[in-house]
Amino acid sequence: QVQLVESGGGLVQAGGSLRLSCAASGPTLSRYDMAWFRQGPGKERDFVAAISWGGSSTHYADSVQGRFTISRDIAKNTMYLQMNSLKPDDTALYSCAAGPRGLSWPPVRGELYGNWGQGTQVTVSS
User: Fold this and answer.
1) Which of 12, 17, 61, 105 sits at a 20 to 30 Å CA gap from 83?
2) How far apart, in Å, are the Cα atoms of 48 and each of 26, 60, 73?
3) Using one digit for the tens of pLDDT, what is the confidence trace for 72-81?
C-alpha cells in the first residue's frame, strides 16, 4: 500500500506560482496512475490533473490547462504539480491520489483512486 504526503502549498498572490509535491513511500510510483484533485471552500472535490503509470500520458481539467503541469520523478518516488498564473479561484486543498495502473483514460473520477494523501492548502490572494 503506497502512502502519499503532499507539501508545497501556501499563500501566493494572483499571477504567482507554486510547485506542489507528492512524496510516496512504499511501492514505486511506476505501479500507479496518479492524479491531483482539489476541493475549494464550500465546493465538491474536483479533478485537476493526471499522469499515467508510464508517464507518457497526462490529462488536465479545462480550468488549469496551459497553467498547470503534472510530472513525476521515479528516482525520488515523487509527483509534482507546477502551478503558474494562479488565480483566486485556484484556492483549495490539493490532494494527490494513486490508483491501479491501466485505468480507463482519462481517469478523472475520484473513486478510481484507492490511495490519498492528507492534502496541502493553496490560497491565492487577489
Assistant:
1) 105
2) 24, 6, 19
3) 999 999 999 9
